[in-house]
Write a structure and sequence with these properties.
The chain contains 6 helices and no strands. The protein is mostly helical. The protein has one domain.
Length: about 140
Amino acid sequence: MVPIINYSTVLVAAIASMVLGFLWFGPVFGKKWIALMGFSEAQMMEARKKSMVKTNLILFIGSLVMSFVLAHALIFASAYLNVNGVSAGVMAGFWNWLGFIAPVTLGVVLFDGKSWKLWFLNNGYWLLSLIVMGIILSLWS
């Protein structure tokens, strides 16, 4: 039997990623992120005046794509590792982060001159986001 992707769960996982991003880069680490990025308050105010609807819509589409692809990765991970539930979600999220997000984002430090602190802050979000999405996808699919 071929597993079927639950599109409602993909949507919920994408929304969870967006909510987590709002909290992570807002009340939890927002001021630290702004400082590490080297932005001034004036620059942040200017960015907020721009089309936040368009920006958030694009980010949401990206979250949907990531959730959809992670749902497929979870099917393979569950079969390959013979795990289900929360363990499968955590493992799929972690291995996808380690294999795809962490290495690709190293360029921000190595070539763009950003700090390791910023790398860890951003990657902490991606790791947690993928794990949360993986758990949601594994439990509700």
